[in-house]
Amino acid sequence: MAATTDFPIPLHEYKVVPLDPKQPTLTDEQREQLEKNIQLCRDAIIFFTAIGGAKGLGGHSGGPYDTVPETLIMHGFMENGRQGGTPGIVPVFFDEAGHRVATQYLMSVLEGEMDIEKLFHYREYLSHLPGHPERGFTPGVKFSSGRLGHMWPFVNGVALANPDKVVFMLGSDGSQMEGNDAEAARLAVAQQLNVKVVVDDNDVTIAGHPSNYLPGYDVGKTLAGHGLKVDTGDGEDLDSLYRRMCAAVTESGPVALMNKRKMCVGIEGLEGSAHGHDVIGTKVAIDYLKSRGRAEAVEYLESVEKGPGGPAHEGCDASSVGKNRDLFGRILNEILDAIPEEQRIASVKVFDCDLEGSCGLNHVRKEHPEVFVRGGIMERGNFSAAAGFGYEVGKQGVFATFSAFLEMVVSEVTMARLNQSNVLAHFSHAGCDDMADNTCHFGLNNMFGDNGLPDEDRDNTRLYFPADQHQFRKCLKSIYNDLGLRFLFSTRSGVPDLLNENGGKLFGDDYEFVSGKDDIVREGTAGYIVTFGETTYRALDAVIKLKASGIDVGLICKATLNVYDEEMMQKLAASPAVLVAESFNVKTGLGSRFGTELLKRGFTGRYNNIGTHREGSGGLWQQMGYQGLDSEGIQKAIRELVK
Length: 643
Known about the structure:
Largest sheet: 6 strands, parallel
Helix content: 25-40%
Distance between the termini: 46 Å
CATH class of the largest domain: Alpha Beta
Keywords: Transferase
CATH topology of the largest domain: Rossmann fold
Organism: Thalassoglobus neptunius
Number of domains: 2
EC number: 2.2.1.1
Number of helices: 23
Cofactor: Mg(2+); thiamine diphosphate; Mn(2+)
GO molecular function: transketolase activity
């Protein structure tokens, strides 16, 4: 790593330009400084986000890069307000696209609220620069954005609380797909809120171009239909953009500015590409910075080394790691291959929510486009569409998104259950492992999917979280034809193959997955750890180390989360101690209900449950240890029970 700590993009040259929205024409001096500021900030964003990418931490470069011009004009309006100009502007860069967090970090530095040195540590563990903004966690960050579609309704409330001021919100054509924004638009119009929505309309989301996969969708027309004044123009034409923003600010009531531009405009190899949504590749960033004459930035990037990997674990094969979120699509293809084409088209529909590559559905799109539906960023509607398709016996709706978004479809889950629909739902990125996007992207409250009534066992909803790729494969193939709602969870991270005491695969060829049946990973006399998913291999390492130290603890893998294996429950009820270890929310996860179920069966031993209980720390695999869910943390928790 280069020894220098001097930031190689001269942000000290940035000079905020006070801009009076009542003067809609830029002076030559204002335009010259704004153009210089825009290029300076774009270079900085490419540089420090590329550092995160080079370290293997991921991130997002294109969105914050694109929206620099409108952000800096907003900054100028805010500065004018600080100097006593009118109208007053709420001095927050509200942004509904949380992945554009680099904007917040850069502006925090430019406003003197964060040390510039912090930018070298974008998305690192304990750096307090996670992948989405979190209020109170990062210096200068004034709001928590959540995922997508959460901010506009929130900003409406800010506007109601500040009726004499203008409130800006940076928008995007992707975020505007969410149903929350439609509701927010209607309220803003009805209440004539002074909200100015500045939409980066670049026709790009994660999975591609909305104009291709959602033909007919037009953000400007949609917002006009809700009653907003809509002003469409070129986001890269600085004079035009400034005039349009001045007009929006000086007009009373809600206004939407549609700024048309290509994603990553001016970056060779990324311009107009969906790949620009993610973190910029190191080579592309270096080439860009070279073209800008940023030799010191190039030198620094060339010296960046990938971040440290996680610790080794006993009881698993680290040379064989399965990424279950990707395997979902591959295994689903095997199932679809075996169904005759005519029957397949009539009986299966697979709904993607613009996360196909993250959930494995890209494989289905490539191999079986005849059953694939590109649903866009609309989790609630897509889940219900999958349920409607699976309304009849013999038809199967398949749905996939991130686990954090399960909270957004709980009402739709209830309606699907009441309609006795058949839905196979894959929720990837469960838990907190490998999640530099941090707290808002943690998939913690997944047990909310189990919200039916125990009415004479009529509810056949099932939640599954297999522990490695082999159990995942057996599980998916076993449950595919089951009736009702099936929630299958996977992690963002890969998980190693689990081994039995003889060194063979724990879930090998002779293993049969049975819904509702728990699996004994290791026997023990001092007590048992009950776990599932990516916590299993960490718990197995803990068990092996505990046994070596003389504490004979066993391990149970409970891959079916919401059904109690009575034979196993009797075994555990007779045990002197039980610890549930999981990456779900410690308040709402398996452990929050498991102790009660043990008591019902006569348990008199000692019990505890550990899970995610702290807001995130940034970083990747380190998140689990931060929550006390690594091997060391699990050992500590069980020792306290059996001492």
